[in-house]
Amino acid sequence: MTITKEQFKLALAKVCDPLPGSIPAPTPYKLAVKQKYNGFNIIDFFAVTVPMVAKEKWIEKIENNNLFIDNKPAKISSKVYGGNITTHFSEPKTEPFINTEFEFIFCDENILVLNKPAPIPMHPSGRFNKNSLTEILKLAFPSEDFKIIHRLDANTTGVIILGRTNESANSISKQLQEKTAKKQYLALVEGLPNKKYFSSNTQISLEKTPAGGREISNNGIDAYTEFEVIKTYSEKKRALLSVTPHSGRTNQIRLHLADLNFPIVGDIGYKDPNYFKNNPLTYSDDCLFLHAKAISFKYKNKEVTFSADLPTKFLINQK
């Protein structure tokens, strides 16, 4: 059974006014233990993985039965091992604001296609739990099991495909993994490239930064992105680029452009990495000028392309 544009809009309105995360509640924070931390004391583990939080805070959480290893209360003497899942909870608080002005693009019995606004994370992470796309869709459509096929950063706008069946989700995911599906982004950047076409194959670390992002690393994983200059704005020293990522690394486009000295307009943290030392990865407002314009893949034995209109902020800043 399909979902119409009107049904989608009404269902979202019912669960988003007020936003589900506007009611104070503890936020759960889960962290998986990697093999390299085998045998670490629980306090030392958090001191290394979450360095911005003082050791005394983790001791306090343990004393208040608010730190768990595989759902069992931790002790100050506890050790962690690869594969363990640690959990702790914040004090009851409201979650940051999110934008729920989704544009309905397409829906049939297999997939749902939306134009994602910003900011809104795809799934619970960091400061966001109920205020995330997957959690809102669960509330709006409790009989559905939407499957995330590909991800966009919380501050990135544009087209996203959600699977309504395992078969459709697996089929499109496989095409993305095999690089037979194609994605196109638009980015407004600082600076004026001196070439119409350029690219980056700089490696990206698999390790998360303290803020939850990634960084350029000579010991990272391969990543390749192509860029084409669509238009330049000499007075503002900005350029609009068409971007084609040939791999799907976390924050790949943002990192490659910052590394090339063409940071995306509004990407404060990747322009100045010191920003993320004291601020979260997700910006509080719609300031990032990166838009997932289109995605193409094979569907029902034919090639299809879904595209998302460019946000008005791009049009305003191009004048």
TrEMBL record:
It comes from the Bacteria. Signal peptide: none annotated. SUPFAM superfamilies: Pseudouridine synthase. One of its GO terms (molecular function) is RNA binding. GO terms for biological process: enzyme-directed rRNA pseudouridine synthesis. Residues 110-258 form the Pseudouridine synthase RsuA/RluA-like domain. Pfam families: PseudoU_synth_2 (PF00849). Belongs to the pseudouridine synthase RluA family. This is Pseudouridine synthase RsuA/RluA-like domain-containing protein.
